[in-house]
Hints:
This protein is α/β, with parallel strands linked by helices and about 290 residues long.
Amino acid sequence: MDKLKILTAGGDLRQIYCADKLAEKYKSDLVGFDSDFLPYKHLFGSPGEELREIYDALVLPVMPLNSDGNINTPCSRNPLKIEDIIPLLKKDALIFTGRTDSRLDDYFPGNDKIDYMSREELALNNAIPTAEGAVKLAMENLPVTLNGLPVLIVGLGRIGTALAEILKGFGADVTAAVRNAAGAAKSRILGIKSICTKDMDGSFGLVFNTVPSQIFDGARLEMFPWETLFIDLASRPGGFDMNAASIQGKKVLWALGIPGKSAPVTAGKYVGETVINILEERGACHA
């Protein structure tokens, strides 16, 4: 059988390597990138080159549309209108996107829309580049070494677990803020200390939050000295009262989308692998 044809449109550097991964099994094309961003000109052709295929699937960015309603193209000087992509797709083409966006229903009312970021394997894979990027960010903003530094991780899920392992390697004094006995048991297995979230104190020089709920309100922030660095890894609405942090002079870095910034090659290949997994689960054929 003929290979499936997949078009990756727009996005950051991750999408380049997503398209590259897809090319291992399918006919893969890319649009929405200026030439200076493309390391694979031999594979993806020249920017502006006319696309002549009719595609079985469209892979949109993690944030699919911008405020103007165009496809998000941070790596292109020119807008990419979704209306220009629709004629390149089969009527029943699959639409892959990193976030749900109701505006896509207007453009693709009868198409299956699949949120690849909600997949467990991608969340697990992304935990490592997220944790590595967060530690890198901390080292760039701390005036002290991680070695011996009291560090608090709020939430011991996928990212929190990866953070604990990396920070232990630096010799940090790691404590996890947990909600229950299961979290305390997980901390013991990881070889780190634990504290109940409600009993957190201000004795930490570095705090990573992974919980998307406002745990750090003004009163809790006041417990910490001004030199404590806070790094919020949680999705919206985040874990901090940013207005209170600003008034108190506390340094809070809200680090969204770390995988795409710190390890776009790895993160992009993970997205491509996830799309391949979804297609194979749906019984898609390839040569």
